[in-house]
Amino acid sequence: MPKKNILYAQSGGVTPVINATAAAVIEEARDNRDRIGKVLAARDGIMGALEERLIDTSRLKKSEVAALNHTPGGVFGSCRYKLKSIEENRREYERLIEVFKAHNIGYFFYNGGNDSADTAWKVSQIGDKLGFHVQCIGVPKTIDNDLPVTDNCPGFGSVAKYVAVSILEASLDVMAMASSSTKVFIMEVMGRHAGWIAAAGGLACREKGDPPQIILFPEVPFDKEKFLDRVRQSVEVNGYCSIVVSEGARTPDGTFLADAGTTDAFGHKQLGGVAPVVADVVKESLGYKCHWAVSDYLQRSARHIASATDLEHARAVGKGAVDLALAGESGVMPVIKRTGNKPYRWKIESAPLSRIANREKKMPKKFISADGFGITPSCRAYLEPLIRGEAYPSYGKDGLPEYVRPDFVYVDRTLDDFEF
Amino acid sequence: MPKKNILYAQSGGVTPVINATAAAVIEEARDNRDRIGKVLAARDGIMGALEERLIDTSRLKKSEVAALNHTPGGVFGSCRYKLKSIEENRREYERLIEVFKAHNIGYFFYNGGNDSADTAWKVSQIGDKLGFHVQCIGVPKTIDNDLPVTDNCPGFGSVAKYVAVSILEASLDVMAMASSSTKVFIMEVMGRHAGWIAAAGGLACREKGDPPQIILFPEVPFDKEKFLDRVRQSVEVNGYCSIVVSEGARTPDGTFLADAGTTDAFGHKQLGGVAPVVADVVKESLGYKCHWAVSDYLQRSARHIASATDLEHARAVGKGAVDLALAGESGVMPVIKRTGNKPYRWKIESAPLSRIANREKKMPKKFISADGFGITPSCRAYLEPLIRGEAYPSYGKDGLPEYVRPDFVYVDRTLDDFEF
Fold first, then answer.
1. Which of A134, B30, B203, B302 has a Cα at 20 to 30 A from A293?
2. Closest to B400 (Cβ–Cβ): which among A71, A79, A203?
3. A260 and A272 in contact (C-beta within 8 Å)?
4. CATH classification at residue A265
5. Is the pLDDT of residue A78 over 60?
């Protein structure tokens, strides 16, 4: 049987460790060069796959591939483009198969979240219908940690570590300033639909009274009076109050707090930002001086403070994808199965994409404390192993991390242009 | 001569490494216990000194003192309280002398910026007038890097490293997303009066075209059309645009951009935040999708990514203060003198507080590129050594840095209460 190539593509928001997954795919495929051809990487995710913009990773030096392990972002480019259903846009699926045929693709690895799992699953079905069998493997990645079946999602652990470390540090700052200046610090984190990332801030609160004193979850409707009471109480008892707020925090009627209000001088609705809204509420009602931070992309690109556990997971799912491909599997995803907490143990298993596609893992109710402002011991037991260990990048003489942006060699195109 | 005690106090905004200065003071004093008594630390800076709230650092274990080297914030508490002039409020100076007398203080170390240098200088004068000689030493600290005479200020190098690393990382993120989603990323950094911190973002731009493509300095009046042209150009050429904006960026008439506009739903002026204002300008005029981050306290507490050079400086000025005290000096500050760039070399010298108090070191014009959007090679040559080296804290099994908050023992009070 002639060797088939892998087509690897990154999808959706990138993470500090998605490139480590890519590195593991490439390295594992190279270790199995007797059975697998090249790894081609789509430029800008599925869009590049459709447009036949394919990077030949066999032209990357071993050291360049290794450096992907410590480079954040998405080195091949990612995209926010969801294939429509086969019924709505069969043309895109047919085009993908055409690209697969043209470049001897036997394996399609789609590295992303729920949408990507859905796409990989659909592609696995249409291939067979069109008489071209391609093994489709979803490879998990998302800082949102909302994929079902898998214990956690590569990318999340590093963001969780960044958030926990950052709120711990900033809290030490506000603690020092509170006697005569800032009394309240607010840090906004990502997670529009689920509070996984906000919950990670709770890891900094190791003993009662420790910061953050308040976490505002998307899962808990914002109760202004109860919130203000808690802020006042923390300032009276601790001298300050440290708050983590999820971008998805919302009022009881479901409105995002971030949309609750701000307009600029021209009357335009201002772009996002729940932290300043919360700061306004505190300032107006209690008069405390506030500082606020919005970590935005900083949190999900902070490879400099990545979790070693997360990095291991990210590499393991990359290797796992190649293993599944070699085992002849299709329509599956390598997932992380937790087998113990003390000590933390885990392994890679295979799960059908049909169980993962388009489903969201919500944070369990039992992970949020009864008052709605913190995390429970069971949440801590779940989260803590995911942020363990440091996996620092190397630094150059200029004091900056040695992140790489290799010069890519593209595969020659053979097909007509594709119009979206 | 009976041994005299040191009174050490922290002042103004804290830094990732101010506690390392404190550690060096305590350690150096302990190494000279034949000549120096105890190091007492004022709780909450000068306020605690006036209120006679004094921490006895001789009760700290050696390991606790050592741990201060990697703990951010201000472990004894800081304050934003500036003593008025002697003419306006002689009472406060007299009270300080009273506290010094009561606790056998022979040396007053004030660890802060311009204001603190001024206070230390005034205290050195009033002591002699009141017949109680106390050696007053200013110890430099400020992330703003705006003290004159000293080559740089401990605290700044670590913030500079955080900013350079963070904008590099976030730029890799937006690069990956730009084909189908976010095209512009904006990171707000501190520096209300000078662009030192914003300039540090320019270190990430190692080659022409590298991010950040735009830095908005307080020193360069915001020219909206020129700015928008540059954003458009960068998106067209690079596919994206990465921007660092100083909180002090202002319009040609001197208005802070952050104040240029936003009001909340209730018509209240919104609290700060220049990044969302810049994002609005881009969105409204060019239609590009923007993401923005406000790093606020995160940048100045990020001990996890501190510069090793900065940490050395912070310790050296602490040791230098004790050395100056032992040499009988007063009204002086240990400052950093750069003696070479290739290789980077520096030493500690002594400078009179009268040359430092109430003066601000502006960023030289020659450090900003001709187009006003970047830094020059001479600026890079100045900044680069300051971010070199990594000085990681140790981490616990829970994946978090082992920052300390020791239980302090306070000195018994002997004076009446002090009313501000």
1. B203
2. A203
3. no
4. 3.40.50.460
5. yes
